[in-house]
Amino acid sequence: MKEFGNTAQKRILAQDIDSFVDPSFFKIDIEINGKVFKTAADGILSLEKENLGEFSDIALDEALNKCSYWRYTFLAAAVEVEELLMLKEREFNEWYANTEGNIRTSIIKRRQSEKKDGVPASWFGSITKQEIEHTIIRDVVLGAEYEIWQELISSLLKKKKLLFGMVDILQDRGGHLQSIGKRRVQTRLLEFGVKSV
Q1: What is the helix (H) or strand (E) element at residue 154, kind and residue range?
Q2: How many domains, in total, are found in the chain?
Q3: Do residues 173 and 43 touch, judged by C-beta distance below 8 A?
């Protein structure tokens, strides 16, 4: 009988991750308006103590401040990347529109030449977007330029997604730390026999 679900013999433990995740994956280098932020994501996301009950009030406040600081930093960086992405997409669209016009003209000239060589006009359909794109990609110079644009836009999309992801993670972390603080206050009030309102 076939087994369904996870049939792995060994659970992946936190220490095992080091063996197959490149440490540079966690390094963050952000520049915003000339100010450079260099840190490691695991340092931002991890807490100093495993047991949250061991946190002092001061350490909890510091952790909340750290969350707020880095959340804003990632948000500012994400907005900068988003703005750059929109600019590069506009530049790419302008480049593509110019290139498309030139390619369309060259396809028409090629077809006219082939008609003179006896190829029936009925063999040619309308020039499609796909035909234009394939012609661009197959061209040595234009294909290389097209690939550079695609890699740049893809890279910016990835950075934007990661940065907004960090904003969300830090939002969750801040909420988690705040709930710990509230529980602590409620526990202290109960110890002193004060009912919370």
Answers
A1: helix 140-191
A2: 1
A3: no
